[in-house]
Amino acid sequence: MIHKIDRYIIKRLADLNWQDKELVEKSGLSKGQVSKLRNGSVEKLSAKTFYLIITAFGDNFSFAIPIVYPTLKNNNLKIFHPKRRNTFGSLMRKYEISENSIEELSAKTGIAEVRLSELYFRQGALEAYELILIEKAIGRKPGELFEQLYGGTL
Questions:
Q1: Cβ neighbours of residue 16 under 8 Å, at least 6 residues apart?
Q2: Which of 3, 22, 41, 77 is deepest in the core (most CB within 10 A)?
Q3: How far are the Cα atoms of 11, 61, 70, 129 from residue 16, in angstroms, in the given order?
């Protein structure tokens, strides 16, 4: 998904009358990384980098997400329809307690099950838009999972 982190950074630097060095100091990102982000030369925006930038500016996610991902709307989520089951499968459904499974998140967010498995069980780098979609799919407020992952509340 295409991000506009460069527009967000330029806007917030101007709003706060900051130079890149203030963002570098407050975010912990390198000068080179901030420069690349501001210049729009970073294709994939990691969830952690997104978190560090938002928190460095002191913004909330509800403010930043529409600027950085203007095409990411609530209607991006799909309705999860479990696979049709036979009589036995229907009987067993009442004994299942699974919620927000990889299969369900994939159906709701459009993120492939293989990609979610990579994120859950391997070293896949979580992109910001993926975490935003997952937050929406499980009914969490914007930034809640970011804060739990990167804000030290795990």
A1: 22, 57
A2: 3
A3: 9, 17, 22, 25
CA gyration radius, the chain: 18
pTM of the model: 0.83
User: Are both 141 and 111 inside the same structural domain?
Assistant: yes
Return per-residue pLDDT of the chain as tens, 154 residues.
899 999 999 999 999 999 999 999 999 999 999 999 999 999 999 999 999 999 999 999 999 999 999 988 756 677 777 788 888 888 777 777 777 889 889 989 999 999 999 999 988 789 999 999 999 999 999 999 999 999 975 4
CATH number for position 131:
1.10.260
CA distance 27 to 38: 14
Contact 134, 72 (CB under 8 A): no
Do 59 and 78 share a domain, yes or no? no
Whole-angstrom distance between the N-terminal and C-terminal Cα of the chain? 27
State how far the Cα of 146 lies from the Cα of 128, in Å rounded to an integer: 9
Among residues 48, 68, 88, the one where a domain terminates is 68
